[in-house]
Specification:
Blueprint: H1 6-20, H2 29-44, H3 61-80, H4 91-103, H5 108-122, H6 128-131, H7 159-168, H8 172-175, E1 183-185, E2 191-197, E3 203-207, H9 213-221, H10 240-260, E4 288-289, E5 292-293, H11 294-304, H12 310-316
Antiparallel strand pairs: 1-2, 2-3, 4-5
Length: 320
């Protein structure tokens, strides 16, 4: 903020204050969505017009940091367009800014991030269709999807962390939170799942791939204290989302093979019904979805911390 001056600094401060008032760290986004849904249903008698994506508050520190970062270039632009403070910002300002961001060649993902940040800070409901902006394309994603210099680096001191990440497909933030007490074992003492609380405050047991159960068990067994995190740090350059992508493809293959052979899913250690949650729309897909058994895809989605079939192929599984 030190490089901002005058009106730009004042606007930036106002936008930051608006975002700060939305902080809901430590609270459950999932519960907030449920409350918003119930409130809408009570007021209107049905769910027409209800948007589950819109919920008051910012529940993730990472999301807050992302939104804060988006405010600085916006503040500079507003100052250059004669805006004096945050209270003067209009939807027209935001729409013009977003269109200009796209016009100078920024990716649709960056523009989407900027729009989400502005909508949250200002309480707007701008959307790409109304603004004539490009929709996000998977082909434009590069972070954690294509090989980078970081992929060729050696992270020797983080091999145990990487093993756990690959084994259960957890998000980056979970790596330094997992304790031995969070690990679910089978009757043979193997670690078969890890309890995590991730995006939106949703809790789940992330299944450990069959091929990793012995390795993860060995790592957990070396821990000194059951209530303290297994790991204290995790290099920020490690492409953890790549591990989630690989896990998604591996779990899909594992469950399909188990089903084809008539074997119990997850090696018989976890109940598939804890992960299969089909929405009313997904339930209409029939027995297969994109060439894979619908129930298997649903189980993979639940294991990843989602409850939608399409996200498995649109966001993770690039090896299908």
């Amino acid at each position: 903020m030190s490089e901002l001056k005058g009106a730009a600094k004042r606007i930036f401060g106002g936008l930051q204050n608006r975002l700060s008032r939305l902080a809901r760290f430590g609270q459950s986004k999932h519960e907030a969505k449920q409350e918003a849904r119930e409130a809408h249903l009570k007021e209107h008698g049905n769910l027409a017009g209800y948007n589950p994506a819109r919920v008051d508050g910012i529940f993730s520190v990472g999301t807050m940091e992302t939104y804060r970062a988006a405010m600085q270039p916006f503040a500079k632009w507003l100052s250059a367009h004669k805006v004096k403070n945050a209270s003067q910002i209009t939807k027209a300002h935001a729409a013009t800014y977003l269109r200009e961001r796209e016009a100078v060649g920024l990716s649709s993902w960056t523009v989407s991030r900027d729009m989400a940040a502005i909508n949250k800070a200002m309480g707007f409901d701008l959307n790409k269709k109304e603004l004539g902006l490009r929709s996000r394309r998977k082909s434009e994603i590069t972070r954690n999807r294509v090989e980078t210099e970081n992929d060729r680096r050696r992270f020797g001191k983080f091999q145990d962390q990487i093993t756990v990440a690959k084994a259960c497909g957890c998000r980056r933030a979970s790596i330094t939170r997992i304790t031995p007490n969070d690990c679910v074992r089978n009757s043979r003492g193997q670690v078969v799942g890890i309890k995590v609380v991730e995006k939106g405050g949703k809790e789940r047991v992330a299944p450990v791939l069959n091929a990793y159960k012995e390795r993860v068990t060995s790592i957990v067994d070396r821990a000194q204290e059951a209530s303290k995190p297994l790991f204290m740090d995790y290099d920020s350059h490690i492409d953890n989302h790549r591990f989630r992508t690989e896990y998604c493809a591996a779990l899909l293959k594992q469950l399909e093979e188990e089903q084809a052979l008539g074997k119990p899913w997850f090696g018989g250690d976890l109940s598939p019904q804890n992960y299969i949650r089909l929405s009313s729309r997904d339930a209409k897909c029939g027995d297969t979805y994109q060439g894979h058994p619908t129930q298997v895809v649903a189980a993979v989605s639940g294991a990843m911390g989602h409850n939608r079939l399409e996200i498995i192929f649109s966001h993770y599984n690039y090896t299908k």
